[in-house]
C-alpha cells in the first residue's frame, strides 16, 4: 500500500524497487524520481512532477503513473543509499513503469546527470541536445517547450590547480579529498568507478566514514569523517599515489566531530 509520509532524512538509506525519491533543484523545489529496479546498476525513472517540499512531492507521488514519466536511465553511483536523494514513499505496485523504454544496459551515468536532466527539463538550466538529455528523455516525448537553450561557449575553461597542502592535525574531524581531472563536464563512468574504489578502500581500512562524494567541473570530491585525521590522511595519500592521482589531488582538514 502506498504511503504519502516521507521517510526520515538520514545519511544512509536502504532503497527498494519502486521507491519514490526527491531531488532538490537549484530553485529550492524538488523533482520526482523512482527506482525501477536494481540490476548491475540502478534503473531510474524520472517524472515531470515538481513540488515545493518532499512532503508535498510525496502526496503527488500517490497519483503518478508511467504516463507522467519523462526519462529513464541507469546510474552507477550511490545517491539513494547515501541519502542525497530522500526516499519519500513506495508505489506499492508497478503502475506501468516496467513497460517503459529500457536504455541499453551497460550505458550508465553518474547521479549528477539526474540533477542536471531535471534542472534542464524544468527550465532551470540550459537544455543541451549534444549531451545526455536526448538519451534520457523518453523516445515518445519531445524536448520540453520551456527549455532554456545553451549559448555557444566563448572558451573552454581551464582545469583548476590542486590546492596547496595544509597541515593536518592529529584530531577528529572531516577530511576533504579533491582529485582533478581533464575537462569541465561530469566525470565518466570509469573515473567514477575508480573514485568509488577509493571510497570503499577508505572504509575497509577503518580510516573513517565516507559521508559524501561528488564530481563535476573537473573536480572529484570525497568527504571522510575520521577520528584521527593525520593518520587517515597519510594512508589516503599513499593510496592516491597507488592510483596515479598524486599530482592532481589534495587533502584538507575541516573542523567537526565525526558522528557516533
Which terms summarize this structure?
2 domains; 28% strand; alpha+beta; 260 residues; Alpha-Beta Plaits
What does this 3D model show about the protein?
This protein is an alpha+beta fold. It folds into two domains: 19-149, no CATH class; 173-254, 2-Layer Sandwich (Alpha-Beta Plaits). It has six helices and twelve strands. Helix 4 (133-136) links the parallel strand 7 (126-127) and strand 8. The protein starts with 18 loop residues before the first strand and ends in a 6-residue tail after the last strand.
Question: Which SSEs are present, and which pair or pack?
Answer:
Elements lengths: L18 E6 L5 E9 L3 E10 L2 H8 L7 E7 L3 H4 L3 E5 L17 E2 L1 H11 L4 E2 L5 H4 L11 E2 L23 E8 L8 H16 L4 E8 L2 E8 L2 H14 L6 E6 L6
Parallel strand pairs: 4-6, 7-8
Antiparallel strand pairs: 1-2, 1-5, 2-3, 3-4, 9-11, 9-12, 10-11
Strand sequence of the main sheet, in spatial order? 5-1-2-3-4-6
Structural class of the helices, strands and pairings?
Answer: alpha+beta
Low-confidence segments: 1-9, 152-157
Q: Report the major sheet.
A: 6 strands, mixed
What is the helical fraction, as a range of percent? 10-25%
**How much strand content do the residues show?**
25-35%
Counting DSSP E segments of at least 2 residues, the number of strands comes to 12
Separation of the first and last Cα atoms: 34 Å
Determine the mean pLDDT: 83
Count of helical segments? 6
Task: Report the C-alpha radius of gyration, rounded.
Answer: 20 Å
What are the secondary-structure elements, in order, as H or E?
EEEHEHEEHEHEEHEEHE
Form type? elongated
How many domains is the backbone divided into? 2
Amino acid at each position: 500500500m502506498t504511503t504519502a509520509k516521507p521517510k526520515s532524512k538520514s545519511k544512509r538509506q536502504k532503497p527498494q524497487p519502486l521507491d519514490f525519491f526527491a531531488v532538490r533543484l537549484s530553485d529550492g523545489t524538488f523533482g520526482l524520481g523512482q527506482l525501477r529496479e536494481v540490476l548491475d546498476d540502478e534503473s531510474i525513472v524520472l517524472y515531470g512532477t515538481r513540488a515545493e517540499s518532499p512532503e508535498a512531492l510525496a502526496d503527488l507521488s500517490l497519483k503518478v503513473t508511467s504516463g507522467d514519466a519523462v526519462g529513464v536511465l541507469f546510474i552507477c553511483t550511490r545517491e539513494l543509499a547515501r541519502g542525497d536523494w530522500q526516499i519519500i514513499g513506495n508505489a506499492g505496485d508497478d503502475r506501468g513503469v516496467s513497460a517503459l523504454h529500457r536504455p541499453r544496459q551497460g550505458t550508465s551515468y553518474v547521479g549528477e546527470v539526474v540533477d542536471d536532466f531535471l534542472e534542464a527539463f524544468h527550465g532551470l538550466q540550459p537544455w543541451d541536445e549534444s549531451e545526455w538529455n536526448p538519451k534520457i528523455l523518453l523516445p515518445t516525448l519531445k524536448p520540453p517547450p520551456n527549455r532554456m537553450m545553451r549559448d555557444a561557449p566563448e572558451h573552454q575553461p581551464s582545469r583548476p590547480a590542486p590546492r596547496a597542502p595544509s597541515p593536518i592535525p592529529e584530531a577528529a574531524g572531516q577530511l576533504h579529498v579533491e582529485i582533478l581531472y581533464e575537462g569541465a563536464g561530469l566525470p565518466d563512468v570509469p573515473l567514477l568507478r575508480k573514485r568509488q574504489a577509493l571510497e570503499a578502500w577508505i572504509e575497509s581500512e577503518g580510516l573513517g566514514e565516507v559521508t559524501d562524494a561528488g564530481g563535476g567541473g573537473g573536480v572529484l570530491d570525497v568527504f571522510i569523517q575520521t577520528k584521527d585525521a593525520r593518520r587517515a590522511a597519510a594512508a589516503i595519500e599513499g593510496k592516491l599515489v597507488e592510483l596515479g592521482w598524486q599530482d592532481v589531488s589534495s587533502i584538507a582538514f575541516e573542523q567537526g566531530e565525526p558522528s557516533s
